[in-house]
Design brief:
heterodimer; A: Folate-binding fold; 4-stranded antiparallel sheet; two-stranded antiparallel ribbon; 10% helix; B: Ubiquitin-like (UB roll); FAD/NAD(P)-binding domain; 6 domains; 6-stranded mixed sheet
């Protein structure tokens, strides 16, 4: 079970959090101008990487804030935790 | 044939404290400190159980948690009964009752033993191959197969014991208290680290603690005496906690471990009352030191499973720790020096050792010379090819190994014995390490898997890391500890170590026999009766992956998880298939390391604490008024209120009629309530609901439908504008938390520029809904000052008012289609306002109704319930709710998805009304809807989502979803049931008051 360093509360157990899928998928500003394929790309397509993955997490049983983490899915190591709206600190 | 095999006083056994216990109904005696296994062996009982498949007699084989054979049922037929308990781990207490499993009528005469003679017809995969066809017969086979499957019997009465969970945080967790574990714990604690030491056995010290011989010395002391001093010092350390009888069950990522602490199983039953039986420790350690030791390997030869065949290390533990001899004529079969250690222990205590059969040819070992001096015959380069004795071993057959170890040569020698100790070397107990994600590497020298790289802050030390000798331990353990704990030195440097053991080994996974393999029974997995023959058969049939061979042959799938035999299975596969062991890998080690009781897993979450539930502030009133409750999410909601022995149907008919004829009252407190404030609140609602919100006037209410981005209906509810920048949103009862989460998600991640604040106020308000033609009369009596005229207080509007000093929010909104009011007050006033409504409403036959009546009333009106009439695949268009989808709004959540190629299909399932041709016939919810019974395969057009008998319309009504249903108005369809076909006609989903006359009345 992970220990996640919530940027607002500090280190807490995974059971306090909820995973929210891939990070940095921006909702299109003008959805009505997109083709079916473009909209489907936003709606359905997600990466499933073995290695470095960018993820959204929510401290749902804590401060309820959303934030991003960088996790190595091959060994579950959390490399960085960073706030929403900031750029990923690593590539 | 009762004999006392207690040979010598052991300091670990209290011979002044005699304990009586029952085994298979007969009384025996042992001493405090005995396990069930040691006490049985002292009484010369080896036969404990029968094997799973062939019902072969089986005895005690080990002295620890790896035991595959000696598993028993404790306290059979009582509430405390427990199956599949290892006799080697049960500490005896006064009144203990144990019995053999998997045998009938008794362990001595077991009818299932016939399977042993049928074994040529019961190869690996027998059940898969035989019961495959005809497929329709499976149900008949299954009955008999299930009957003969399984080991012990699970309890049928509820568990009287108490269990609990506990969190522990520490700097260093040390698993195992053998010599390496003690060194680690002491070093960590002395360096100021908060240390926890856990040990699965009741005493510390592992196998070194009873090592009192000239061959192992530390600084010129017996290694056992040295360790005893260390332990005494260790116990004085303040920042060290020691937990005995505590088994680590699981090692998860981020150094999170689960351990089971056994607190009362060693006590007489009458001393357990009120005490916690097992405690599940949830340990989060900064660093973990695994000193889990190693498990001795058996050897694989024909009939290697008879009672009286034990691991040599187990024989040593029984004699040195418990003072019990496993036999009077002992022989050993070994491929390394371990058996010699045991033989020396036996001879020290005056027990006869007849011979040692050693696979090795050239052995230069001091131990061997010592034994030869004691006239023990050593057969070098020999092996055992067979054994005799049905219920206990009495003879072994010995032959010489060929130079390459692949065959046996020469003539057969018969030796008689009553106990055979076997040693195939050692397997590091790396189970926990691999559970944590660690990878193994294969060490060719002694054919073992050892840890290679650590996935978290952890190390393995001692024999679980492949350091089996005292020399290796004193060289490597201090070195590892210094690096791991980042310290300069340990107490254990420059020690003088005497360790006479010779490390040589002649590893042969499957010992050769004079018989062909097909005629032998050489067991690899004792509990599941998987033999080397089965493994080779699996390979011949094309299985290659170790994971597949395991499942096909059931090797390693017993309650012992193959702690003894898995390595041999790997070895045999590797040899047969010509793959290197290192490349073959191992099967996956999964938690728990040893079985856990269900009690340990659930802890205190039993009975009413199994799950948390939520009660409304009016709950007590519902209880005193005979409500039946329904679970909605975690809420307990009144379902219906039966009167005078009514059943549910009768109660619901009465409640529904009263609500339409005069007045009904519903506790709607469970509806989700979200307080929305901020200058962008209107814009926010515009984006999350499908309809437009900007023009909603203050003090007005509006129904809203919320979609997912995929266009499917997610939730619905009425939202009221309390002030210019202040709304209160209601959600469905079950959807409240998810809606709140979803809205927060959008606000925080997509639209952080919006000035909007959300607060969940579900629990802050009590909501009472009063409906029916007389509802206005009732509320105006309660709120005498308020103008309830339709001009001043029309449908879908809101008023703030007071009752005495209590603030009330009243909305004129309706989920029943009746004229109705929702009164919201601070939660703690809810019950008194409810009671007031009941009192005032008495003259109007005000009738409390539950969720079932609410569902019926709204179905009459064709209102949907999200989650009942929708299932995550319905768009508002599918629900015939096009009217609520704004055409003008530029965007809202899910808008773009409403015209994807899939969502604009005309043959999507669409919500329709269904009327049965026979108005008395009520459809079953979930029933399929079809058009043509003759066309095969029958095309499923949809299903019934809601169905009731309406007392107000005096006919059966239903809602359902049907492919292309919108355009099928008036069409006849069929609902096929098990024994009849029901004819239905598609109708408008609004059955009552389509013109909303009642609402506005």
């Amino acid at each position: 079970m992970f220990l996640i360093n919530c940027p607002f509360c500090g280190e807490r157990e995974q059971s306090e959090f909820k995973a929210g899928g891939e990070a940095h998928i921006v909702r299109p500003k003008q959805p009505t101008e997109l083709s079916d394929d473009e909209w489907a790309e936003y709606l359905f397509m997600r990466k499933n990487i073995k290695g470095i993955q960018f993820e959204r997490w929510n401290h749902v049983h804590g401060c309820r804030k959303w934030f991003n983490i960088v996790r190595d899915t091959s060994n579950d190591e959390i490399k960085v935790v960073y706030k929403m709206g900031t750029k990923p600190p690593i590539k | 044939m009762t004999k006392n095999l207690r040979v010598k006083t052991s300091k670990f056994i209290d011979e002044t404290y005699r304990i009586s216990f029952k085994f298979n109904g007969k009384i025996y005696y042992g001493f405090k400190g005995d396990t069930l296994a040691s006490a049985l062996l002292a009484n010369n009982i080896h036969l404990v159980g029968r094997s799973f498949k062939y019902h072969r007699p089986r005895g005690i084989m080990t002295a620890g948690s790896e035991e595959p054979n000696a598993i028993v049922q404790l306290h059979n037929k009582t509430a405390r009964t427990e199956p599949n308990v290892r006799a080697t781990e049960v500490e005896i207490y006064e009144g203990l009752e144990a019995s053999s499993q998997n045998c009938w009528p008794s362990v001595n005469f077991d009818i299932g033993g016939i399977n042993n003679f049928l074994s040529p017809f019961l190869p690996a995969g027998f059940y898969y191959k035989t019961f495959m066809w005809p497929a329709s017969f499976w149900e008949k086979y299954e009955y008999f197969i299930r009957k003969s499957a399984g080991l012990g019997k699970s309890p049928t009465k509820s568990d009287p014991d108490i269990y609990e969970h506990k969190y522990i945080h520490c700097d260093v967790l040390v698993i195992g208290s053998g010599i390496s574990g003690i060194m680690a714990a002491k070093t960590a604690a002395k360096n100021g680290l908060k240390t926890l030491l856990v040990e699965e056995k009741p005493n510390l010290g592992g196998s070194t603690i009873y090592q009192k011989s000239e061959i192992f010395k530390i600084n010129n002391q017996f290694s056992g005496s040295w360790l005893e001093n260390e332990i005494n010092e260790l116990k004085k350390l303040k920042n060290l906690e020691i937990k005995i009888r505590t088994t680590v069950a699981a090692f998860h990522g981020y150094n999170f471990l689960l351990a089971r602490q056994n607190l009362t199983d060693h006590l007489p039953i009458e001393h357990r009352k009120g005490k916690i039986r097992h405690r599940l420790l949830k340990i989060r350690a900064k660093k973990v030191v695994s000193a889990t030791g190693s498990i001795e390997r058996p050897l694989i030869f024909d009939n290697n499973d008879r009672p009286g065949i034990l691991l040599s290390s187990a024989i040593k533990r029984y004699v040195d720790l418990f003072g019990v001899a496993c036999g009077e004529k002992n022989i050993f079969l070994t491929n390394n020096d371990t058996a010699y250690e045991t033989a020396i222990s036996l001879i020290q205590k005056g027990i006869n050792v007849e011979a040692i059969i050693d696979n090795r040819e050239n052995i230069d070992s001091k131990l061997l010379y010592d034994l030869e001096k004691n006239n023990v015959k050593i057969y070098k380069g020999f092996t055992v090819v067979g054994t005799e004795g049905y219920k206990k071993i009495n003879k072994i057959l010995v032959m010489q190994l060929s130079k390459d170890g692949q065959r046996v040569v020469g003539s057969k020698i018969k030796l008689s014995c009553d106990c055979l100790g076997v040693s195939g070397g050692w397997t590091p107990a790396v189970h926990l390490f691999t559970q944590s994600g660690g990878k193994l590497k294969f060490r060719d020298d002694d054919q073992i898997f050892i840890p290679s790289n650590y996935p978290s802050e952890q190390i393995c030390i001692g024999s679980c890391n492949g350091d089996f000798t005292l020399n290796d331990i004193f060289i490597n353990v201090p070195k590892s500890l210094k690096k791991f704990l980042k310290i300069k030195k340990t107490e254990y440097e420059n020690f003088e170590i005497l360790s006479e053991i010779n490390k040589s080994k002649r590893n042969i996974w499957l010992l050769p026999s004079d018989k062909i393999l097909g005629k032998t029974k050489s067991f690899v997995d004792y509990q599941n009766d998987a033999t080397s023959k089965d493994i080779k058969l699996a390979l011949r049939e094309g299985f290659r992956s170790i994971e597949h061979v395991k499942r096909y042959t059931t090797t390693g799938m017993g309650t012992d998880q193959g702690k003894l035999g898995n390595m041999h299975a790997l070895g045999i596969i590797s040899e047969t298939a010509g793959t290197k062991m290192g490349e073959l890998g191992t099967t996956t080690f999964r938690p728990p390391y040893t079985p856990l009781t269900f009690g340990t897993i659930v802890g205190r979450n039993v009975g009413e604490y199994f799950d948390t539930f939520r009660k409304t502030p009016i709950h007590e009133w519902h209880i005193s008024n005979n409500a039946k409750f329904e679970n909605v999410g975690q809420w307990k909601r009144p379902w219906y209120y039966p009167k005078n022995n009514e059943d549910m149907y009768q109660a619901v008919q009465r409640e529904s009629k009263a609500a339409r004829d005069s007045a009904g009252i519903l506790d709607a407190s469970t509806l989700g309530k979200i307080d929305i404030q901020g200058t962008d609140a209107s814009e926010f609602l515009n984006r999350v609901y499908t309809n437009a919100w900007s023009k909603l006037a203050v003090n007005r209410c509006r129904y809203g439908l919320m979609l997912n981005e995929d266009g499917m209906v997610y939730d619905d509810g009425v939202t009221t504008r309390l002030a210019e920048n202040h709304y209160i949103m209601t959600t469905t009862t079950g959807g409240a938390a998810n809606v709140m989460g979803k809205l927060e998600d959008y606000l925080q991640t997509e639209w952080p520029e919006l000035d909007v604040y959300l607060t969940s106020v579900t629990d802050h308000y009590s909501t009472i809904s009063v409906c029916g033609p007389n509802s206005k009369k009732i509320v105006s009596k309660i709120f005498a000052d308020l103008d309830f005229s339709d001009e001043k207080f029309p449908h879908m509007s809101f008023k703030n008012t007071k009752i005495g000093q209590i603030n009330c929010r009243i909305m004129r909104i309706s989920f029943t289609g009746e004229h109705s009011y929702e009164i919201n007050v601070q939660a703690n006033y809810g019950k008194s306002i409810w009671e007031k409504c009941m009192e005032v409403g008495k003259d109007f036959n005000i009738t409390p109704y539950g969720t079932e009546t609410m569902h019926l009333l709204r179905a009459e009106k064709g209102f949907i319930i999200v989650g009942q009439d929708t299932d995550g695949s319905m768009t508002p268009i599918d629900l015939q709710m096009d009217w609520i989808v704004s055409k003008k709004k530029y965007d809202f959540i899910g808008k773009r998805s409403l015209y994807r190629s899939d969502t604009i299909r005309e043959d999507r399932k669409q919500l329709v009304g269904l009327l049965t041709d026979n108005p008395e016939e009520v459809l079953e919810e979930g029933a399929q809807i079809i058009a043509n019974v003759k066309k095969t395969p029958i095309e499923m057009l949809g299903h019934v989502t809601s169905s009731y008998y309406s007392p107000n319309l005096k006919k059966s009504i239903a809602l359902g979803v049907v492919k292309g249903g919108k355009k099928m108005m008036g069409q006849k369809l069929i609902v096929p049931m098990e024994n009849k076909l029901i004819n239905v006609t598609i109708s408008d989903p609004v059955f009552l008051d389509k013109e909303n006359k009642k609402l506005n009345a």
